[in-house]
UniProtKB/TrEMBL annotation:
<protein>
    <submittedName>
        <fullName>Uncharacterized protein</fullName>
    </submittedName>
</protein>
<dbReference type="InterPro" id="IPR011009">
    <property type="entry name" value="Kinase-like_dom_sf"/>
</dbReference>
Length: 148
């Protein structure tokens, strides 16, 4: 969700109540909607991996750090230190970021309107215990397979 916020400048699920229904929906696979044109493909891929319902399939923190470092490196002009394969990878990533930036620049009004849309009164973005939401989840779903 952090990468989602960084990439879109929007809070996830801001248009709905943050309650047991949302927790259940997330367990059943619902994810925040995004316009993939405004986010580099490499970010979208990383977000989707982090959102995998099976925790064993999510990237480890070290993998995420390496990918973010790679994204950052793509803007550093050290091409003389890179192999041809790495150079191509950096070029592809840089191209994805530029494409997303171009989209954002040509759609600033639309994106600003989306960012300023009202937040649901029961949307919560401060730390809190989820126990009050998750304690009743088993009664809603007998085959709840994801871990919260």
């Amino acid at each position: 969700m952090i990468i989602y916020f960084i990439a879109t400048s929007r809070q996830p699920f801001s248009n709905c109540a943050h309650d047991e229904n949302l927790a259940l929906d997330i367990c059943e696979g619902i994810r925040p909607k995004m316009n993939e044109l405004e986010v580099p493909e490499c970010y979208v891929d990383l977000m989707k991996k982090c959102w995998n319902s099976n925790p064993d399939n999510r990237p480890k923190a070290t993998e995420i750090a390496e990918l973010i470092h790679l994204f950052h490196e793509s803007y550093v002009p050290n091409s003389h230190l890179l192999t041809e394969e790495k150079n191509q990878q950096h070029y592809d990533i840089e191209k994805q970021f530029k494409k997303a930036e171009e989209y954002k620049e040509s759609n600033t009004i639309l994106l600003e309107e989306r960012r300023q849309s009202p937040t649901h009164p029961q949307a919560v973005y401060t730390s809190q215990l989820l126990f009050s939401y998750t304690i009743d989840l088993p009664k809603y779903s007998e085959c709840l397979e994801c871990e919260i």
